[in-house]
Amino acid sequence: MKDRIFGTECEYALFYQPDTKAGIGHSGGEDLLECLNGLNSLLVSCLWRKGFARAGEFLGNGGRFYIDHGGHPEYATPECRSVRELVAHEKAGDRIVQELVELARSFMMQRGQSGKLHIYKNNVDCFGNTYGGHENYLITQWAMEQIRAIVPFLVTRQIFAGAGKLMTRLDPQELIIPYCSTLLPDYGAGRKDKKKAMTTLSSGRFPYQLTQRADFIDRVANDRTSQERGIINIRKREIPQPGQNRRLHLIMGDSNMSEYALGLKIGTTGIVLRLLEEGVLNDVPKLDSPVEALKRISWSFDSLVRMEDRKGRYTALDVQYSYLERAERFFSSHKPSKEEGEILQLWSNTLRGLEKLKLSRTTGILEEDPEDLRRKIDWILKLWLLDRFREKNGLDWHDLALKYLDLRYHDLDPETGLFARCQELDLADRMVDEEEIHRAQIDPPEDTRAWTRSMIIRSTMNRNLEVHIKNWEEINIIATRKNPRVLECLDGGCHGMPNVFWINLQDPFQAQDLSVLQEVKRFVEIWG
Amino acid sequence: MAQERIMEKPKKKKVRKEREEEVASRLSDEKKEKLKKLDEFIEGVLQEAGEEFIDEFKQVDGE
User: Fold this and answer.
1) Which of A64, A107, A513, B62 is the most buried (most CB within 10 A)?
2) Which of A82-91, A400-409, B53-62 has the highest mean pLDDT?
3) H or E segment at A339?
4) Shortest CA distance to A253 belongs to which of A115, A340, A150, A325?
5) Residue A466, Cβ neighbours under 10 Å: how many?
6) From CA A74, how far away is CA A65, in angstroms rounded?
7) Of B41, B45, B54, the CB nearest to A400
8) ipTM confidence
9) How confident is the model over A240-272, as pLDDT tens digits?
10) What are the two backbone dihedrals, phi and then psi, of residue A430, each rounded to the nearest 5 degrees?
């Protein structure tokens, strides 16, 4: 599949710190839940007050904003056909939720509820709860059947896609201990040794991981998104037609602050899926134990992992190079698209930069970064920032001020967010410009069904119509009973047109479906 | 003439080197300025959070 549909879903974390001591921070669980529900309702009402074009959860820019099951505000991008557009739309989502939070703050102030309200784009809170940064790729049915061939790529891409995380003592101990003991060369896997390793973790070795999600992944493939999580998420809820393209849903990745890391994560995954569909990953080596490898690499960049039917052990870089080399070989005889060519170059440059990266295994200090990857990769930028502050103030890696700064890295507020400030000071590279992000806050991609959906939303707004968008495909437009004409014509329809219009945008590639829009226009003229 | 040209060469080199040094120093000054702003920002973030909040954070972390 040369053309692909990409999409992401970000679950954000709300942070509220009341000014008064008797605030919610000191209340019980029920109060906390009530507060969270109140904040979420406020955000949804702010969406309406901001005047965004929308129908239910779906927005005029083709995206979707909603409150997820776990009480997280969530933004899903529209269906995008290019990586660059996807980056702009994910960033547009960040801006939209931040704008909602700013408006919510002002309403809270008016009500006399003073305090700090922030929204974070990360994947784990200080209680050890996790929430996702999900990716969606449209792939062929055949590729879905062979999907395990990309598992080694997914496990190892964290070396450029990880968002970085400073561990706390509340992170799942049963996860930390075994992996600590297998990582630290001096300790074995016995209980005593595990205890010793844990002591070392809390007192000496720097507790920094490449990713936030790795510790929460416990299966290679799974259809669930909480309690159990797979490297590959099999969506059993979706029952596609035979031969129909499938949605590959990945929940194992981190949410990225860096545009560059986000673009590279989506772009390289897209290229590897193309290789899979072209049948050039048939002989790709498989990891001996993918879930363990995922955690090991997260704990230490240069961890060694075993491959099936291969002697010796390999680094994540070795595995990445094996995919890159296959891609370069394939594209030497197949002309890549302009974007594929750019992503290949970025991938190659990044791996070469990572090869030259030097980290101290004992102190965690970033000793050498000759290719300036800290300008591009989240976990490296965060590590550099934390280490700089730690060294300047003579702090221990376990100082809570560092953990607090880790959290602030993901704060979407340009006034208080650490990554946002790095970007403002030109300490982080960009993939898209402000104009593209601003446009993506308003307009949908012009080359997918998101455009048609958006036009339907816009043309039916402020009319006597109810628009129910059930999912990314199905839209129902219903003439409401508020309209006197509805009561007159309910029995036989108006001008031969029933008062309910059902639309199915089945093909995500079909953009600007003018015949559908003509019918919608006629429906709106008659009933709206 | 040839002698003049030979004499000119080192001059140009010297000027170029001085310019490069000037640019490098300006870049370095810019970088220093950015890092200074970054440090001030981080200090501000922690001050705004306040010691009391960091203490609460410690309780959450189980200390």
Assistant:
1) A64
2) A82-91
3) helix A338-356
4) A150
5) 16
6) 6
7) B54
8) 0.79
9) 666 788 999 999 999 999 999 999 999 999 999
10) -120, 155
